[in-house]
Design brief:
Structural class: alpha+beta
Number of strands: 6
Strand order of the largest sheet: 3-2-1-4
Helix content: 10-25%
CATH superfamily: Cyclic phosphodiesterase
Shape: globular
Number of domains: 1
CATH architecture: Alpha-Beta Complex
Strand content: 35-45%
Number of helices: 2
């Protein structure tokens, strides 16, 4: 489903809706400019069965955006992921077969905003609902 395509910048887990104003304030304090992200690699992990589209290089603006979000979240008491950020778009889950790591035709994604998204689990897959978005300069 194209509406579900996204990159997770900071995973928050289950958050009570009364914390949404605090998250909105954190996002308002983020300073980042628009950027382009070029996806050109298809990766399938053999153990997890996840099929990802990944960029060959991560733009500095994306790293700054993720770093700023995580720093602001930590400063406000929200837990953050300690793993190194690896941008990817999940195309499929539970894919059988061997691992894949190959280049594909470049896909350009112009990033002009970021969003607070809620994941609503479903029977076959999750549905993602945008709660609020913030433009990048």
């Amino acid at each position: 489903m194209p509406d579900n395509l996204h990159i997770t910048l900071a995973f928050l887990g289950n958050i009570k809706h009364d914390l949404l104003p605090a998250l909105s304030e954190i996002a308002l304090n983020i300073q980042s400019s628009r950027f382009e992200l070029v996806f050109e690699q298809l990766v399938k992990k053999s153990k997890s069965g996840m099929l990802w589209l990944v960029p060959r290089q991560c733009p500095e603006q994306l790293l700054n955006l993720v770093g700023g979000l995580n720093l602001n979240l930590q400063n406000c008491g929200f837990p953050t992921d300690s793993r190194i950020f690896k941008p990817h778009v999940t195309l499929a889950r539970k894919v059988c077969g061997r691992a894949i790591n190959r280049y594909c035709s470049p896909i350009l994604w112009v990033v002009g905003s970021f969003s607070l998204v809620e994941s609503l689990p479903g029977v076959a897959s999750s549905r993602y609902v945008i709660l609020r978005s913030w433009p990048l300069s």
